[in-house]
C-alpha cells in the first residue's frame, strides 16, 4: 500500500512538473508572440500611415486606423468603398480586388482617396491574404501610405516636361524662320552666316534669362539689358526707363529679337552710327496694356525703304503677335520709331 502511495505521489509530482513546464513554454510563446506583434505593429506604423483589416471578399472593412490621413473605422463598414474612394477610382480598386482574390496574391494599387480634411489625396495601398488550414482566404491585412505629395510632384514634372517640349518646338520654329528668311535675303552666304549668328545669339541670351527664371517669367528690364549687351560701346547714348513688368517666355524671346534688330540697324545706319545720335527706350503698363517705345534721334536722315526686310517684318508682325497686340515701325526723317502695344501674359 505504501509503495502504491509513493508511486502516486511521484506521478503527481511528474504531472505537476509537466504542467509547470508547459505553462512556462506557453508563457514564453505568448511573450514571443506579443513581442513579434509589437515589432510588426511598429514596422507598419513606421512605414505607413494607414492600417486596416478587411474580410475575405472585401465586402466589409473590419477595422482601419487612418493615422490622421483618412477617417478611422472601428466596426464593420460595408460602405467603405463609397466613403473612402472617389468615384473616378472605384472601378480601378474593384479590378485590383478581383485580381488579388482570384490569384490569392498581394493587393497592390495607387489610388485617390477621400482624406479626413475633406480634400482628395493619393494612397499607396498593399494588403496580403491570411489563409485557413485549407488554403482559403480568411481575411486581408493591409497598410497604406499617403503619397499625395509625390503624386503632385509627378504631375508638376509632367506639366513641366510638356511645357518644355512646347517651348522647344516654338524655339525651333523661330530658329527655322530666322535661318530661312535671313538666307533668302542675304546678298552672300557670309552675310547670311553673320546675320544668323547674331540673331541666334540674341535668342540664346534671352533663353538664358528664362532658364535662370525657371521659365516662369522674365522681367522686361532684364530682357532689355541682355539684348543691349553686345552694344555696350554705345551704352551712354541709350536711355532706358521703365518699371518692372514680367513677360511670358515667348514674349521675352520675341522682344529680345526686336531689340537686337533695332540696335543692329541703329549701329549700322541709324542714331548709333554717328557720334551725336541717341536712343530712348521706355515702357509702361496702363490698365493691363503694355506700351514699349524705341525712339531714335540725332542720327543720319532716315528714308523710308521701298521694301521691308525680314528684320522689319519680325519686329512688326511676329513680336506683335506674341503680345496679342501690334508692333509698328515708323521711318521718320529725324529717326526710327518703334512702338509695341499689347498685353503681357502676367498682367
From TrEMBL:
Residues 107-159 form the PAC domain. The keyword Oxidoreductase does not apply. Its EC number is 2.7.13.3. Pfam families: HWE_HK (PF07536), PAS_4 (PF08448). SUPFAM superfamilies: ATPase domain of HSP90 chaperone/DNA topoisomerase II/histidine kinase, PYP-like sensor domain (PAS domain). Signal peptide: none annotated. Gene3D superfamilies: Histidine kinase-like ATPase, C-terminal domain, PAS domain. Keywords: ATP-binding, Chromophore, Flavoprotein, FMN, Kinase, Nucleotide-binding, Phosphoprotein, Photoreceptor protein, Receptor, Repeat, Sensory transduction, Transferase, Virulence. It catalyses: ATP + protein L-histidine = ADP + protein N-phospho-L-histidine. It is an enzyme of class 2 (transferase). This is Blue-light-activated histidine kinase. It comes from Jiella pelagia.
Amino acid at each position: 500500500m505504501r509503495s502504491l502511495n509513493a508511486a502516486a505521489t511521484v506521478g503527481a509530482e511528474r504531472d505537476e512538473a509537466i504542467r509547470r513546464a508547459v505553462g512556462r513554454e506557453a508563457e514564453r510563446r505568448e511573450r514571443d508572440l506579443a513581442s513579434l506583434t509589437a515589432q510588426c505593429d511598429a514596422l507598419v506604423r513606421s512605414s505607413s500611415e494607414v492600417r486596416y483589416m478587411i474580410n475575405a471578399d472585401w465586402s466589409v472593412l473590419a477595422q482601419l486606423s487612418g493615422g490622421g490621413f483618412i477617417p478611422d473605422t472601428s466596426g464593420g463598414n460595408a460602405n467603405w468603398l463609397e466613403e473612402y474612394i472617389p468615384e473616378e477610382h472605384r472601378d480601378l480598386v474593384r479590378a485590383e480586388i478581383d485580381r488579388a482574390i482570384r490569384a490569392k496574391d498581394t493587393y497592390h494599387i495607387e489610388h485617390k482617396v477621400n482624406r479626413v480634411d475633406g480634400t482628395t489625396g493619393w494612397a499607396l495601398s498593399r494588403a496580403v491574404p491570411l489563409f485557413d488550414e485549407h488554403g482559403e482566404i480568411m481575411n486581408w491585412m493591409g497598410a497604406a501610405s499617403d503619397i499625395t505629395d509625390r503624386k503632385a510632384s509627378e504631375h508638376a514634372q509632367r506639366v513641366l516636361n510638356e511645357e518644355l517640349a512646347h517651348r522647344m518646338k516654338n524655339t525651333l520654329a523661330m530658329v527655322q524662320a530666322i535661318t530661312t528668311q535671313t538666307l533668302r535675303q542675304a546678298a552672300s552666304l557670309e552675310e547670311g552666316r553673320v546675320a544668323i549668328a547674331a540673331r541666334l545669339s540674341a535668342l540664346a541670351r534671352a533663353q538664358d534669362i528664362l532658364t535662370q527664371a525657371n521659365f516662369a517669367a522674365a522681367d522686361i528690364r532684364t530682357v532689355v539689358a541682355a539684348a543691349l549687351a553686345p552694344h555696350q560701346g554705345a551704352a551712354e547714348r541709350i536711355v532706358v526707363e521703365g518699371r518692372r513688368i514680367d513677360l511670358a517666355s515667348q514674349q521675352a524671346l520675341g522682344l529680345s529679337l526686336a531689340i537686337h534688330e533695332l540696335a543692329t540697324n541703329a549701329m549700322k545706319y541709324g542714331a548709333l552710327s554717328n557720334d551725336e545720335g541717341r536712343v530712348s527706350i521706355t515702357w509702361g503698363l496702363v490698365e493691363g496694356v503694355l506700351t514699349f517705345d524705341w525712339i531714335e534721334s540725332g542720327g543720319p536722315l532716315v528714308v523710308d525703304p521701298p521694301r521691308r526686310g525680314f528684320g522689319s517684318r519680325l519686329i512688326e508682325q511676329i513680336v506683335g503677335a506674341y503680345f496679342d497686340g501690334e508692333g509698328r515701325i515708323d521711318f521718320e526723317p529725324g529717326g526710327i520709331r518703334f512702338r509695341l502695344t499689347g498685353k503681357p501674359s502676367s498682367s
